[in-house]
Write a structure and sequence with these properties.
Number of helices: 8
Number of domains: 3
Structural class: alpha+beta
Mean pLDDT: 89
Helix content: 25-40%
Order of helices and strands: HHHHHEEEEHHEHEEEEEE
């Protein structure tokens, strides 16, 4: 859809007249009318105001001309996964798991600038990938990327040889992680999770059933 059609659709979906919208974003009704006919487009400050009002990204308002990708983890972003600042505005550089309310969510995201920016952060992820592949775990294919996953989705319970049950992750944290099929086929697959402190590899069946810890290694 074109910007003019998106702006018209969002206004009518929110049951706002042109006058009401103009008042909310501090422009004239004529300006709103010109947006919706395609004669003009809102300036950047007005786009920010519209983004916050409609709870959609500026990229969405402009008809999604670019594919948004999290600068930390590489996740493809949409309005449901894009991060926000403290004031409620979208930060279209990061996903909500890497960055939230004006700050990075985990130690290695908080240290993002210390790591030297995007290039050095990618080097860090590549180092994790190298360390995982260097484990040479039987049946685990080589991995080539890591995504961000919330601990609540991957924090499985493992039974140790002494019979105790333990979880290694934190439900409220996020990790660089991936899921890989077993090279030997069958219903089991591998799960990988890592941060600055450790590497974890496990295997499990569908929906995380019957999990088995393969390796937990301090870095």
């Amino acid at each position: 859809m074109e910007t003019k059609d998106i702006l018209f659709e969002l206004r009518t979906k929110n049951r706002l007249s042109q006058d009401e919208l103009a008042e909310k974003v501090f422009v004239t009704r004529q300006a709103v009318s010109r947006w919706e006919t395609g004669e003009t487009t809102p300036n950047i400050e007005t786009l920010k105001a519209l983004s916050k009002l409609y709870d959609v990204s500026i990229n969405t308002l402009l008809g999604s001309p670019r594919q948004m990708i999290c600068h930390c983890c590489g996740m493809i972003l949409d309005d449901s996964t894009t991060s926000k600042e403290i004031n409620g505005c979208f930060n279209e550089d990061y996903c909500k798991w890497c960055y939230n309310q004006g700050d990075f969510t985990l130690d290695f995201w908080k240290r993002y600038k210390e790591l030297g920016g995007e290039d050095m952060f990618q080097d860090y992820k590549n180092q994790l990938i190298h360390e995982i592949n260097s484990l040479h775990i039987e049946g685990l294919p080589k991995i080539d990327h890591l995504n961000v996953l919330s601990g609540s989705f991957i924090n499985l319970e493992y039974r140790l040889p002494n019979g105790s049950i333990i979880q290694f992750l934190d439900d409220d944290a996020t990790y660089l992680a991936n899921q890989m099929p077993c090279e030997f086929g069958g219903s089991r697959c591998f799960g990988i999770a890592a941060n600055m402190d450790f590497l974890l590899v496990c295997s499990y069946e569908k929906n995380g059933e019957n999990p088995e810890l393969v390796i937990f290694k301090k870095r």
